[in-house]
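Exam review. A common question shows you a sequence with its C-alpha cells and asks you to describe the fold in words. Practice with the pair below. Do the first one on your own.
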Amino acid sequence: MSRFASLVKQLHRNGLTISLDNFGTGQAGLSYINSLYFDKIKIDKHFIDAINKDSVDHHILTTIIDLASKLDVALVAEGVETEMQKTWLIEHGVLLGQRWLFSKYLTQQEFSKVVGIRPSSISVK
C-alpha cells in the first residue's frame, strides 16, 4: 500500500469522510477505486451536462452510477444547474448535489448564517 493510501485509510479510521473528487476526469480515475478507501464519489460537472444527451459521456455517467451502487458508495453530482438534471439524478439514485440550482457560492459570513454558527468558529484553510 502506498504511503498516501495508508494515510487516507488512517484518516478514515479516525472518522473523516473521504470523497473522490471530479471522478472520471484528470487524475480521479478508475485506478483509485482499487487503491484508496473513500465514502463518496463526486461526479464531475462534465458528465452532469451530458444528461439526456445521446453521447458517450451520458453512458459513462450511467456506468459511474451503476458502479457506485455496486460498491455501496454515495454519489455527489457536481454542477447541477437545472431542475431537469436534478430530477434525472434523483430518479437514478443520486441524492446529493451541488451548484447554482441549490445555492450560489457563499462567503464565510453567508455560510455561517445559513448553517447557524458563529463565523469565528469556522476555519477555512
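Now try the second one, then compare your answer with the model answer below.
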Amino acid sequence: MSEQEAIKMTLAGRLVSVMAETGALVKHGYNEQKNYSYATDADVLQAVREALARNGVLLLTLPGQVVYSEVKSKDGKPMTVCRLQVMFRFVDAITNESLEVEWPGEAIDVDDKATAKAITSGLKSFLLKTFLLPVIDDDADQDRRPRQQYRHRPGPPGAPPGVDAKTGEVKRLSDNQMNMLQARMQKFGATEEEILHAFNLKALPDMDNRTLDRVLKWLETEHR
C-alpha cells in the first residue's frame, strides 16, 4: 500500500487497525478492601492512546446532559451521585471524517469529584467495549491475594500469531502497521537494512508496538 493509498483509508478502517494493534490488558489495580484486581483507567488509556495516534485518529470527549442526586454513606455522610451522557467523537486527522457515539457514565463521591469520575468511568467502559479489550490477571496478583484464593489464568487460549497468549502483548506488526511503516520509510528515504541494523532486528514485522514507535521517531528526527 502506497502512502497515497494509506491516506485514503476510511475512519472505520483506521479503527479496525487500532483494534488489531491492541491486545489484552493486565490488571494492575488492586482493591484491598474487597480483595479483587482490576484494570485501571491508565491501563486502558495506555493500551489505546498510542494505537489511535499511530493511525491518525483523534478521540474527543464531549460531556452532555448531567443528573445529580444525593445519597448517604453507611456512616451517614452525604454523597453525590453523578449520571451523565458522554458523546465520544472519533475524528480522522487526515480526512476530517468523524464518528459519534453516545455513552453513559456514572460515579459517586463524597467530595466534588463525582462529575470527573463519571466521565472517566464512561471513557474507560467505552474503550473497553468499543475495542473489545479482554482483561487478564497479572502474576503480581499472587503476592497480593490470599494464597488459597489465588488461581492463575494464563490468558486467552489460541492467541493469534505474534500475540503473547499470557499478556496479550502484540509482538508482530499487523499488515496495516507494515504498510504505514513502509510508507514512512519511502518518505524519509530509509532502507530496511538501516532499520534492522539500528534496532538490532531480524525482520521488520518481528517488532512490538513500542519498537515501532521508536522506529517512527527515529525516521522523523534522526534519519533525515
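Model answer, second protein: The CA atoms of residues 27 and 187 lie 39 Å apart. Confidence is low (pLDDT under 50) at residues 139-162. Full marks require stating both points clearly.
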